[in-house]
Amino acid sequence: MPGMGEIDKLQDDLDRPARRPRRGASPSDKPTLKTIAQMTGLAVTTISRALNNAPELAQETRERVQRIAAEIGYLPDRAALRLKTGRTNVISLVLEPDEHIYGFGTSLVTGITEALRGTAYHLVITPQFRNIAGIEPIRHIVRNRMADGVIFSKVEPFDERVKFLFDAGFPFVSHGRSQFAQAHAFVDFDNEAYASGAVERLAKRGCRKVAILLPESALTYSEHLRDGFVRAAEALQLDHEIAADVTLSSPTDAIRTHVIKRQRRPDPPDGYVCCSEISALAVIDGLAESGRIIGGTAHVVTKQATPLFAQFRPGAETVFEDFVGAGRRMGELLLLAIGGAPAETLHAIGAPHFAWPD
């Protein structure tokens, strides 16, 4: 552990990032808080507050200091900052590459970045590789104090990541909910309402039998989708089925093949509820291959996260899920969690907006 003298020495000189060396200076001669103070005539403590957007300082002062810092290549030294304050000013997003939810990761990053704009925090993406247990990157972040808070998705009812972070007292926000009795910060979409509304729409379009393609059964939102789907179908006295042998994470060829085979068997569905654009494209291709006309002899309702889907496949009806907005809200809630806000106040559930064409 450093002695008090070493910590005191960091008081005015926490951060030493790389910049282009001045002529005659050594490569290690890097801009510091003192450098900016000398250039502006302001105190080092004022420079530090300005870089952290302290509201008590005039906006003109903050903008001037931040502009000069950018011009000379100043960036905070995370190791020194952590040594002095225990903070890293880093938010970690644990992200699994997922080709089945088009644009999901990019949208989350966009939203979280918007939430962090104007703060001292920076976003770092931690990969979640498919052959590694989901808890491992979380353990790595917490045990090595690589961030001040973490965001992750694909939550299970009794997710071990949630429990681990509970026990560690580490700030986090999840995209999706667990079923633990203890409250935790999360942002979610009302998937139960989505599935129910989608079935109602298919019934109105004249479908006599509806099917749904669910995510992996281990995920909490799979239960929500199933519950909404079954409840609405039973209330409307519609025949219904859960797509067997394939899930939202199945390869698109497997989904397409499943639909084609199912259409060849007796009593096939003529209405499908999909939970992502990619899976919907596979379902639509399977229906088309089977001789169905989308919007005529078969109908598809799917979530839509980007405006591109309708351009490729008109005929399917869509419900928008705002992943950018979800990312923004998760960033906002995580900042509150880091600040000590109680977990029971840190959650948001987006409601589906059904704007069906006439």
UniProtKB/TrEMBL annotation:
Q: Which PROSITE patterns match?
A: HTH_LACI_2
Q: Does the keyword DNA-binding apply?
A: yes
Q: Where are the transmembrane segments?
A: none
Signal peptide range equals none
SMART domains (UniProt xref): HTH_LACI (SM00354)
Residues of the region (Disordered) are 1-32
Q: Where is the composition biased (Basic and acidic residues)?
A: 1-18
Q: Which InterPro entries match?
A: HTH_LacI, LacI/GalR-like_sensor, Lambda_DNA-bd_dom_sf, Peripla_BP_I
Q: Which UniProt keywords apply?
A: DNA-binding, Transcription, Transcription regulation
The record places domain HTH lacI-type at 31-85
Query: Pfam families in the record, alphabetically?
Result: LacI, Peripla_BP_3
- What name does UniProt use for this protein? LacI family transcriptional regulator
Species of provenance: Devosia nitrariae
Q: What is the lineage of its organism?
A: Bacteria, Pseudomonadati, Pseudomonadota, Alphaproteobacteria, Hyphomicrobiales
